Automatic annotation (TrEMBL):
<feature type="domain" description="Glutamate/phenylalanine/leucine/valine/L-tryptophan dehydrogenase C-terminal">
    <location>
        <begin position="178"/>
        <end position="409"/>
    </location>
</feature>
<dbReference type="InterPro" id="IPR006095">
    <property type="entry name" value="Glu/Leu/Phe/Val/Trp_DH"/>
</dbReference>
<dbReference type="Pfam" id="PF02812">
    <property type="entry name" value="ELFV_dehydrog_N"/>
</dbReference>
<feature type="site" description="Important for catalysis">
    <location>
        <position position="142"/>
    </location>
</feature>
<feature type="binding site">
    <location>
        <position position="185"/>
    </location>
    <ligand>
        <name>NAD(+)</name>
    </ligand>
</feature>
<protein>
    <recommendedName>
        <fullName>Glutamate dehydrogenase</fullName>
    </recommendedName>
</protein>
<dbReference type="GO" id="GO:0004352">
    <property type="term" value="F:glutamate dehydrogenase (NAD+) activity"/>
</dbReference>
<dbReference type="Pfam" id="PF00208">
    <property type="entry name" value="ELFV_dehydrog"/>
</dbReference>
<dbReference type="InterPro" id="IPR006096">
    <property type="entry name" value="Glu/Leu/Phe/Val/Trp_DH_C"/>
</dbReference>
<feature type="binding site">
    <location>
        <position position="66"/>
    </location>
    <ligand>
        <name>substrate</name>
    </ligand>
</feature>
<dbReference type="GO" id="GO:0006538">
    <property type="term" value="P:L-glutamate catabolic process"/>
</dbReference>
<keyword id="KW-0520">NAD</keyword>
<keyword id="KW-0547">Nucleotide-binding</keyword>
<dbReference type="InterPro" id="IPR006097">
    <property type="entry name" value="Glu/Leu/Phe/Val/Trp_DH_dimer"/>
</dbReference>
<feature type="binding site">
    <location>
        <position position="90"/>
    </location>
    <ligand>
        <name>substrate</name>
    </ligand>
</feature>
<dbReference type="InterPro" id="IPR036291">
    <property type="entry name" value="NAD(P)-bd_dom_sf"/>
</dbReference>
<keyword id="KW-0560">Oxidoreductase</keyword>
Amino acid sequence: MKAFEAVQHYFNSAADVLGLSDELRTLLATPEREITVQLPVEMDDGRLVSLIGYRVQHNRVRGPMKGGLRYHHEVDLDEVRSLASLMTWKTAVVNIPFGGAKGGVTVDSRAISSREKERITRKFVDEIHELIGPDKDIPAPDMGTDHEVMAWFVNQYNKYEGFNPAVVTGKPVEAYGIPGREEATGRGVGILTIKSLGRLGYKVPGATIAVQGFGNVGSHAAKFLSEAECKVVAVSDLSGGYYNPEGLDIMQVVRYSREHGNSLAGFPGAKAITNDDLLELDVVVLIPAALGGVITTENADRIRAKLIVEAANMPVRPDADDLLAARDITILPDVLANAGGVTVSYFEWAQNRQFYQWNLNRVRGELDHMLSTAFEQVWDLAVEHKVTLRTAAYMVGIQRVALAAKLAGLTS
């Protein structure tokens, strides 16, 4: 099952419960615009390479479209389309006034220099600047991009459209960014993990947790949960997993990663395991925070966690999702679990429009409030309709988008 087909599977499961007509399903599920552009870029060695860039604008009925921009060698139109539609439901679940979009360039971000990445970014802006903007479509960092890429993006956009920092979010704080944006997704994962543990009847102190992926999201989630006295027993990155049943000193892990080029290779004081082994550990909480599609029918029956919190996008495949549900394993879905990033992106966009910067305490307080509100709505709906949290989250999002479409006169 391809990525967009997987999102549509979840969409249709929720639409069935809501009793949506076929006409309305087609209206809500079909992307409004799909953009494919060629990016001829001169590399540092003088070669001219032609890369392909994508921007899929899925839905704007609730506001300007919002979604990340990723640089990855596996980016294709189907993946970008699926993530754009996911953003439509994600922004609606947390009730921020955005629609959904996503973008990407098919390039290995680890194999290019900083100057090459800058040229790719500027060329991409050259090709799409007329179709994006603070009131149209607002990109943000994603896999393979960061605050520096967003700063280049704004600078190039301003050459065409004039000064407007609200064209992207995830910018450096010194360049009209917002405090707390870097930690936002991981912090949100931590907040919602604690709320889920409470609802499931587990004590937060001492709850065992495994985190697959120790990048920006996974590291901040692990740090937040460690500070809440959870026992993070395993983490991993591209070099493999590191397991200590007595619990890891997360600040030591963070320092080691920074001192070794953002790599955990050779981390002492923990048993080396594989990423696959980490997924199958006997823990209370499993947090997949790396790539999508890591839990499949091949390993679903070996998952022993009681709660899976989807920090990554679509880490659980639909067929595995059904198997896990049948075993009463609770899954906090990506459309809610990792919505902290887009929520703080909304705060950044709002402060840019007002030319007024929020402080970190306000950002964290507002983030906690908005995610907590969304969590309670989704949980209560799941209980009311006797459906999974994923179906309930999609139901919340679909209802809001459908209502906006009706009020706009797009459907009866």
